[in-house]
Amino acid sequence: MLKLSNVSVNYGVVRALNDVSFEVPEGHITALLGSNGAGKTSLLRAVSGLVPYAGSITFDGTEVSKLGPERLAREGVLHVPEGRRIVADLTVVENLKLGMTALGGRTSKADIDGVFEIFPALAGMKEREGWMLSGGEQQMLAIGRALVAAPRLLLLDEPSLGLAPVIIKAVYEALATVLKGTTVLLVEQSTANALGLCNEAVVLAQGNISAKGAPSIFTREFLAKAYLGG
Amino acid sequence: MGVSNTFERRKTTPGARNNIRNIAIFAAIAIALELMFGDSLTQANLVNLWMFYACVSIGFYYLFGVSGQFAFSQAAMTGVGAYTSAWASRDLPVVPAIIFATLVTAVIGGLFVLALRKASHFYFGIGTLALSETYHILAIQWNSFTGGEGGEVYGIKPLVLFGVDFTGDKKAFWLMLVVACGVLTLGAMLERSPVIRESKATRDQRTVADTLGIPHLRSRVTMFMLGSAVAGFVGAVYSHWKMGLSPNTFGLELGLGVFLMVILGGLTSKWGAVLGAAFYVWVPELISFVEEFKLMVYGGILLIVIIRLPEGLIGIEHIVMSRVHKRRHKDAAETPASIAETVVTDLPDGLKPNLRSGEAIILATEAMTVRFGGNTAVNNVSLELKSGEVLGLVGPNGSGKSTFLNAVTGVVPAEGMLSIYGQQIPLGNANALKKAGISRTYQSPQTYLKLTCLEDVLLSTSDRKFTGVAAAILRPFVTLKHERARWAIAEDALDWVGLRHLADVKVAQLTYGQRRLLELARAIAGKTSTLLLDEPSAGLNASETEVLGEYLMKLHAAGVSILIVDHKVDFLNSICDRIAVLNVGNLITIGTPDTVWDDSRVVDAYLGTQ
Amino acid sequence: MGFFIENLINALSYGAAITLAAFSFMVPLKATNIVSFAQGDFISLSAFIGAWLITDKGWNWSIAYGATLVIMFAAGVVFERLTHGPLRGRPVDEVIIATLGVAFIIRGFISRWRGANPQNLESPLRGKFFTFAGAVIPYQRLVLIAVAIFVTLILYYVFQRTAFGLQLRALATDPEVARLHGVRTTRLAVIAFGISSFLCGLTGLLVGSLSSFDIGLGFAIMLGGFCAAIIGGWGSIAGAFVGGLVLSLIERLFGAYYFTHFREMLPLVFLFLFIAVRQRGIFRGAESYGRL
Question: What is the DSSP code string of C68-131?
Fold first, then answer.
C-alpha cells in the first residue's frame, strides 16, 4: 500500500532522515519507534507531503512526491499530527466537519455520530471549542477527525504524547477496535502500547532504520537498551 | 589558556572604514552632478531632491529596515518638521526653529511608539496610517498653526548662515549636501555602537533579546524617534529652502514612496535608501514616457523587486561580492570545519564567570505548574539546582521538560514559586535571571541569522553602559571605548569555541553544529555563572556531541552550574552529577546517572508500560 | 429634528460603506493572514469602471453594475496571483508591500485613464429622495445601508454554516492542519481575494453614486474600514458591523455638532485609543482569526 524507497529528509543543514526504505502492506499496522530526534515525525511529514524529500514514496502504486498534502488527504492519506493540533476556535462538531473536507466525493462508513460512538467522552461536549478540551479529549477528536474521512492510510503521530497512562490506555483500546483492517503507520515513543497494536515495528535511530520485525522480537530489555543505552 | 593575547584586537568594525570612503564617494558624485548639470534649473532641483529624499528614507531605513516597525508615517513626520519649523521661525531665528522642529518630531514619534507599545505589527502599521492621516487633516484645517489657507504656506523665512541665504537650488545644494553627509555620518556613528545590532535582535526575535537582557522597548522607541527626527529635521530644512509648503508634498504618496525607495535600494544598508532615492527622482525624468505612467511604473517596480529581488539593488552588489569573496576564501566559505575536529581548551581567564561564593542553591522552583487550556504540561515540579553541579532533566517526549525550562525563564506563563540564590523572584521576569548571571539556550539554536557571528555573541556581553542611541551620538568616543572592550570579550568567546575565523561571517552561513557552539559562545560572553541548556545535542552526531560534552565539562571545571535538558543518555551520563526524570509533567525521580536508569519507573515512563 | 435625522442617515450610510470595506479585507485575512492595503484603490477602481460603462459607453445601469462586479472579482483573482501567490512562504511584510505596489499601479492606471476630474456614477435612485420630519433622505443612502446589512447576514451565514466558511476559519487558525484535511489552500486564497475585490466593487458602486467622486474616494473608506475592523475586534464579522456603526455615529453624527472642522480626526483618535488600550476591540481576541 505504502512503499518508501531511499527516502531522505534534510532541514537546511540537518539531516533528519537518511535513506530509509520499507513497506506498509494493505491492512497492516506498522509502528515506527525510536527516541526523540530519531526522524520518526520527519518520515511521517514526508509521507503526507508536508516536507520535501529525496527518494521515492509510492501510495497504492502511484508516486506521490509531486502531490501536496491537500491532494493526498483527498486520496485518503490522513495524518493525525504530533500534538493533535485541534483547531482551537472550532467546536468539536466543527472540527469533525472539517475532517470531512478530505472525503472529496469518496464515501465514508463512519460519520460524525460514529465518532461519538467510538469516543463517548466527546459526545457530551459537541459544542465546546477545541481549546477547552483536555489533552486526551483532543487526541480522541484528532483521531475522529481523520476517521470521518475514511482513511485508506492513517498516519498517527504519537497519540500518547503528554497523556497520563490511564488516558493512553483508553485511547489505545479505542484504536484497537477502530483500526482493524485500516492501513496505519503509527509513530510512537511509548513502545508498549504501540507494540501491542501493530503487525510490524520499525525502529529508527539517528535517521536510520536500526531494527525491523514482528512486535514479539522487541523485548523490554531490547528496547530499554535501544532507548536508554547501557 | 592565554589564547586571548595571541591575536590582534580589532579597533573598529569592518564597515567603519568603508563608511568614510562611501560618504566621500557620495559627496563626490553629488558635487559632480551639480557641476555638470547644475546650470539646468530642473536638474539642480533634482539633485537637491535626491539628497532630501535620501535623508527621509535613511530615517525610514532605521525605523523600518533596522528596527522592523511597519510605518506609513515617515512622510507625515517630514511634514510635521516642516510646518513646525515654519511656525517656530515666525518668532525665532531659523536655526533654533529647525532644532525645535526636530525635537518636536522626535517627541511625537517617541510618544506614539510608547502609546502603541503593546500594538501588534499590523495594528502598529494601521496606527501609523492614522497618524499620517491626522497630519494631513491638521495641515489642511489648522490654519492658525500653518499660517496659510488649506496648509498652503508662502514666505517662510530663509536660512541665512555666514551671510549666505540658502534659497534657490544652486545655493541650497551646498546646504543639502551638508545635511545629507551629516545624516550619513550619524548612521556611521550608530553602526559603530551596539544600537543597530540590538535593534535587529529585537526585531528578529524579541523573546530571545529579552533573555539576553536587551531592553526591547527602549530600542523600538529610540529607533522610531531617530527615524522621525531625521525626517523632521530634513523637513524643517526643506521648508526654509523652498520658503513655501503644501500639505501634499508630504502626503501618502511620499509615505508609500519611501517604501519604494528603501525596498528598491535594499533594506540591508543605508546606502540602499540613497540608491532608491536616486531612482525615485531620476527614473521618471530620464525615461520620458515614464512621467505619465509614473505611479504605475513605481508600483510595477515595487512588485517585481519584492518578488524577484528581495534584497534590492544593494543585494545585487552583495551577490556579486559574495561570489568574489567565495573565490578568494574558498576554504573558509565552502568547507566549514566540522566542529568534531575542534580542540577544546580551558576557559580563558577573560571569560571566567562571576561566581558568587557561599551560595549552595542557585535556582529553586517550588510547585511549578504550567497549564495550556485543558492540559497540564508541568505539574507541581519542585527542583533545585545546586551550585557547581550539572543537573540533567530528562523524560519522554511531551513530558514537560522544555516547558519547565520555558516557565523558569519566563517564556510561558506559569504558577508556582521561583527563587534565585535563595531570593524569591516573580515569574516571567527574564531580566532578573540575566542579572543573576543565568543564561539559557534553545531547543533549536536561536541565533540571529542576519547578524554576523561577532554581533550575535556581542548581544549578551554584560557591559550595558553606553549602548543607546543618545550615547552613540553624543559620546561617540566613550561608546567606542566600551565597544572595543565588548569586542574583545566576544572575540575571546568565539575563539574559545573555534569560530573566531568566522567572526564577520553571517550566522546564516554557519552549519548547524557551529550554530550550537555560537549559542554557547554567546552564553559565555555574558560571563554567565549558570547555564540552562535545552537539548543542546539535538541535531549533532556522536562525535559532535562528544565535543559539546567536553566544552560543558570545561565550563563545569570553571565553576559554571548547568541545568541540561537532553535525550542522549550516554551524553548525559558522561557529564551529569544528578539526573531528574519527568513524566507527563510530574517529577518521578531524581538520582545519580548510575542508578537512575535502573529505576523501573523510569523504564516504564519511557516504554509506556505501567 | 430634521438636521438630526439627516445626519443620522448620513452617518449610517457612511457606516455601511466602511463596514463593507472592513469585510473586504477580513475575508482574505482569514484565508491568508494578509492585510491588503490596496482595498481603497479597488473601491475607487470599481466606481470609475461603473461610471465609464454607464456614462461613456451608455450601458444600462444593471448590466454595467453586473459587469463591474465581475471585472472586480477577476481583478481580485489577478491580485492574488500577483502578490500572495508568488510570495507564499515569505515574510508577511513583503506580501503587504506587494499589495502597496498594486495600489500604486491601480492609482496610476486610474489617473492616467480618467484624469483628475470629478466623476459621476449614474444610478436609477440617484438624486431621488423623500422628506421625513423635515429631513431630506436620499434613497441611495438607504440602499447602501440595506446592502450592508444584507452582506453582513450573508457573510455570517457563509462563515458559520457552510463548508467554505469552515475551511476558511480552519485555514486562519492552522493552515497546516487545514491542508492535512484536504483544504485546498491555493484555491481558497484565490476565491477569498476574488470575494474581497467583489465587496470592494459593491462598496465603490454604492458610494460612488452618492455624489461626484475622484481618485481619493477609496482611501478614506479603507481607512474607515480599518478603524471599524479594529474597534469592532479584528476578524470578527459582528465586530466590523458594530465598529462601523459606532464610528459612523461618532464621526458623522457627533461630528455634525462638535469639532466640525476636525471631525475626520475623531475616528482616528478612537483608533489610537483602541490600539493603545484595548487591542481586542469591542468583540473578540486579536489572535483568534478563526472565530467570528
Answer: HHHHHHHHHHHHHHHTTTTTTTS-HHHHHHHHHHHHHHHHHHHHHHHTTS-B----TTTT-EEE
